[in-house]
Amino acid sequence: MEAVNTDISDADSVEEEETVDASGDPTLGQVLLAVEELWPESLAEDWDEVGLVVGRPNVPVTKVLFAVDPTLAVIDEAVEWGAELLITHHPLLLKGVNSVAATSAKGLAVHRLIEAGTGLLTVHTNGDSAVGGVSDVLADAFGLENVTPLTAASNGLPEEGIGRVGDLPDLETLGDFAARVFEMLPAVAGGVRVAGDKDGLIRRVAVCGGAGDSLFDAVRASHADVYVTADMRHHPASEAREGATNGRPYLIDVSHFASEWLWLPAAAEALGNVLADQGYDVEIRVSSTNSDPWDFILTPGGD
């Protein structure tokens, strides 16, 4: 496909056309449109930085790699595989910078991407909030029913927002449920931490991929028996336990990386389906790099 813009109203004034690879591969710009269809940037939180970080919209794309973090190891994996686009959940440049010199890790990442011709795209809180996003995938993995968002999205759509809450098909002990959570997440050094009665019965479950201890008011309002999220800080967790009713909500603290990794296969499949519907055959892969920052943990042992 040579000409994307074929609407020529005046034969004497032909506008510049976007050219793409003769094989029919989509351009980066066309992939961005597919991404916007799935995870609209309008769903991102006000503080967030999502969208294209590095890349030329007219470059053909044949390979896309999905990852949680744009670490140097992940970037090397994308470059070595020959991906023209790396899509990560976490932003590379969330805070403002005044230099991208290769003397810093972030600057080196930018240089590595540009020099290799690999684009970088961030799908962060828009990927959390959208239908089929991070928390939806967690809710599905845990087998929750009657799922609704913990907090509503700013666009007013009732099915979109940060976090999810729903019900297990049957009552389950906290210990058994925590074991299921542990088994289905990628193995990381931090494991899974649990607060609550191991034999306590639960049915209503709230989840939030990534750091979610700012959502305790919404969790309590949802009447959840247990809350699964990552990066629980000491004081919010302690206050949640002190203010609990009959010990609930119980708490399950998981790895930030692991909680969001589960979304990657679903996201890769969703993008592949949208591109296939448009007649494109793009190779899409999930990164094999574990970007969890911890290497090992020391514990006192016990059950």
TrEMBL record:
<protein>
    <recommendedName>
        <fullName>GTP cyclohydrolase 1 type 2 homolog</fullName>
    </recommendedName>
</protein>
<feature type="region of interest" description="Disordered">
    <location>
        <begin position="1"/>
        <end position="22"/>
    </location>
</feature>
<feature type="compositionally biased region" description="Acidic residues">
    <location>
        <begin position="9"/>
        <end position="20"/>
    </location>
</feature>
<dbReference type="InterPro" id="IPR002678">
    <property type="entry name" value="DUF34/NIF3"/>
</dbReference>
<feature type="binding site">
    <location>
        <position position="256"/>
    </location>
    <ligand>
        <name>a divalent metal cation</name>
    </ligand>
</feature>
<feature type="binding site">
    <location>
        <position position="89"/>
    </location>
    <ligand>
        <name>a divalent metal cation</name>
    </ligand>
</feature>
<dbReference type="InterPro" id="IPR036069">
    <property type="entry name" value="DUF34/NIF3_sf"/>
</dbReference>
<dbReference type="GO" id="GO:0046872">
    <property type="term" value="F:metal ion binding"/>
</dbReference>
<feature type="binding site">
    <location>
        <position position="260"/>
    </location>
    <ligand>
        <name>a divalent metal cation</name>
    </ligand>
</feature>
<dbReference type="GO" id="GO:0005737">
    <property type="term" value="C:cytoplasm"/>
</dbReference>
<keyword id="KW-0479">Metal-binding</keyword>
<comment type="subunit">
    <text>Homohexamer.</text>
</comment>
<feature type="binding site">
    <location>
        <position position="128"/>
    </location>
    <ligand>
        <name>a divalent metal cation</name>
    </ligand>
</feature>
<dbReference type="Pfam" id="PF01784">
    <property type="entry name" value="DUF34_NIF3"/>
</dbReference>
<comment type="similarity">
    <text>Belongs to the GTP cyclohydrolase I type 2/NIF3 family.</text>
</comment>
<feature type="binding site">
    <location>
        <position position="90"/>
    </location>
    <ligand>
        <name>a divalent metal cation</name>
    </ligand>
</feature>
